[in-house]
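TL;DR need structure tokens for one chain.
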Amino acid sequence: MSAATQPCEKPVLRDNVLRERGQREVFCGLTGIVWMHRKIQDAFFLVVGSRTCAHLLQSAAGVMIFAEPRFATAILDERDLAGLADAQEELDRNVARLLERRPDIRLLFLVGSCPSEVIKLDLGKAAQRLDRRFNGTRVLHYSGSGIETTFTQGEDAPLAALVPEMPATDAHQLLVVGALAEVVEDQFRRLFAAMGVGNLAFLPPRRAAELPAVGPNTRMLLAQPFLNDTGRALEARGARHVPALFPLGAEGTTQWLRAGAEAMGVSPSRIREATAIPEARARAAVAATAERLQGRSIFFFPDSQLEVPLARFVTRECGMRAIEVGTPYLHRAHLARELPLLPEEATLSEGQDVERQLDRCRDAKPDLTVCGLGLANPLEAEGMATKWSIELVFSPIQGYEQAADLAGLFARPLARRERLRV
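>> reply
TL;DR here they are.
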């Protein structure tokens, strides 16, 4: 068997992890709103923050949104920050004006920011007060502050806020957790249906009223590796985590589907029958796209927490050589199936000391560097090919049909670099 077709090895702990603690280069967690507001169609995200917060969201999302967005910023100005105005009263006025203008909102998130946390604005009490006042619109809160977070926690936090609202159930069900593009979610629904998995739910739902139930017979299948708080909250409600590879590439998608189906009692033969053809099609599509990636080296800076499953995909299915795989936080339970599949020669690092990592990257001279926006342009100016890690979060990359597109996201920067050299 080739490395790409071997079954998952027995999970083992990887001890040679380089732990970094120092200066960090991170993108604000508020950016999670850019993809979350598209997922829950009748939800609205109201950031309680500064003009800087508003400019961040406008610049991050402005090139992608052509309809009226479902997010906004309640601006904290100098009077609020100096304590000269009652920020709670102003927040109430903003929410009342918003709901009057947008009566279609059924779920309102009050999103904390660095400025609102600095002045100790209690959004928890505000959410409770507004939830009682505006009957018919559920009001919740979470922190999107970028002070101590990485940007994908901007998805983890609102999903964790939803868990206490989920009704209880004793039904035996499979719960897929993580925001997926609708086209990807529909593909997974069809594949699980083909395997006979009938009691299937997704968190987050497409509409607030469709919030799934949870209980002791719920099996939780994570679609994203960065849902630490959400996973803990669901386990506290009785759900049991199903260890699996993440659904990136043909291998990851098959193993992910298999883990979920087996947890629901589906036979191996029925799983193979449902996945064999789409897996073969995905492998062929990846192989055609990955010709440009064969033998190329790659260096992952810690940014999104997607780095470990992405490194597994590009090394095992695209033939790349991983020099370093950096991740902001290494959740061993969620990555238990991924870690044994990383190449032994790759350095695995957790946390960040950006200057030291930049030195290692420059010394290694990788063919491709995956990093945040703050590092990409300087490294491009130094002659390195880069891929924005945030694009790998915005884009639909999970599942069989998207496997070749995922390979293409890594191949395009190299193709661009080659054209520029001509």
